[in-house]
Amino acid sequence: MLSARNVVKHYGGVQALKGVDFDIYRGTVTTLFGENGAGKSTLMKILSGVEQPTDGQLILDGEPVRFASTVEAQHRGISIIHQELSLAPNMSVRDNIFMGRELRRAGGVDYAEEARQAAALMTELEEDIHPLTKVGDLRVGQQQIVEIARALSVDARILIMDEPTSALSATEVEVLFKVIRDLTARGVAIVYISHHLEEALEITDHAVVLRDGSMTAKAERADIDLAWIVRNMVGENFDLGSPPTGYEFGDTLLSVQSLTVPDDSNVDRAAVDHLSLDVRAGEVVCIYGLMGAGRTELLEALAGASQVSDGKVMLEGRDVTHMDIAQRIAAGLVLVPEDRQRDGLVQTMTVGRNLSLASIGAFVKNLFLSNSGERGLVDDSIRDVHVKTDGPGAMIGSLSGGNQQKVVIGKMVTTDPKVILLDEPSRGIDIGAKAEVFKLLAERAKQGLGVVYSTSEVNECLSIAHRIIVMGRGRIVAEFGPDVSKEQIMAASGESVAA
């Protein structure tokens, strides 16, 4: 249906794509694999009219085409679900789905029909979201569903999905895959990008691998496995590390005592229910749980982003329960949030300013900023967390999603914290970058940092964690050491749901 031939893309002196050939077939799923910065999102932006190629050609239905905008691409049946959510949080689900292409009737917009169609899309995606709900009130996974619904509402012939499951639960992923198979059965072509490699293998018909802006491999589903993907992406089989060893844990840094966090959506239950947990210096603790288990609510409450109704948060014996976010950062308790776009980055700032933002007070003297001191910190941070960038002066929006996530992590690490909390730290990060991030956290743990990270991926529990906590319905339902199996972890989380 659509082919890219010898597509080249330059951004200043950086060549993002180096003569890429890429084909999309009717009624099939073509999966595009590659590390952050490999050129995947750039290629998809060109195919959907967001960007124009520096050189090369697009061929649609056998004819050369050039899309000047996403509107032109949509008119030719091409729609994209972007990796980063592009929703208006102050508008309703209905209005976001039909924004810019409102349904008209005599006298104005047909809001009733828009609501009906929005409700039908939510039913198809098996998500109980009212069309008039404000998007800003939804959790990240539900916002991702709205983004998918908006793309489905266009009735596209070619649907590009760039990390569509990055914030979805396992159940929501299953529903999305069912929708994808329904679409391909009707002849729709799907382009699918995901860093969840095993998940992508379930849905793909054709696989293409990009590396450093060039296509390194392509094959049919029957001829590929996980090792093939990793080998062609990064050249060798990365693992996510192992629990750091060679030292003894220090004293308790973080003590959570019978913490209770109210559930804003349900007054009859608590998001976190009288939970107690201690974290020692040098210890890496993983918190695992299904969607709704309370992982995010726990970490946000610990960081001061939400109120608690009962219990205490102690940091090195000091009560920080009623401190605000800035005070907790100063005390040494920091959070890398789940939603980097909304809570972790300032899009109008450079890479360097985003990295130094949480530490900027250390470089201000007599109302003047010490540029040399800030620059040294930024350069060190870029090197430590392996950010791929043109330099500190590059705008944060020019980075791939995974590199933006590294900036958020680097920003918090530069504050020299005692305990770092990370909510889904690998969201939108490829396998190589995951290994780098977990290696960084393991190194900091060996230096005495307390590390607490949450994840919905079982494999990540078995990487660098000394201790794995399984949550369900706001409580700790199981606790394991590093020798636990994936099956034991999953069984514990399943039991918590059934209880």
From TrEMBL:
It comes from the Bacteria. Its main location: membrane. One of its GO terms (molecular function) is ATP binding. GO terms for cellular component: plasma membrane. SUPFAM superfamilies: P-loop containing nucleoside triphosphate hydrolases. Transmembrane segments: none annotated. CDD domains: ABC_Carb_Monos_I, ABC_Carb_Monos_II. It is a peripheral membrane protein. It holds the Pfam family ABC_tran. It is found in: Cell membrane. Residues 2-237, 254-498 form the ABC transporter domain. InterPro entries: AAA+_ATPase (IPR003593), ABC_carbohydrate_import_ATPase (IPR050107), ABC_transporter-like_ATP-bd (IPR003439), ABC_transporter-like_CS (IPR017871), P-loop_NTPase (IPR027417). Keywords: ATP-binding, Cell membrane, Membrane, Nucleotide-binding, Repeat, Sugar transport, Translocase, Transport. This is ABC transporter ATP-binding protein. It comes from Salinisphaera hydrothermalis (strain C41B8).
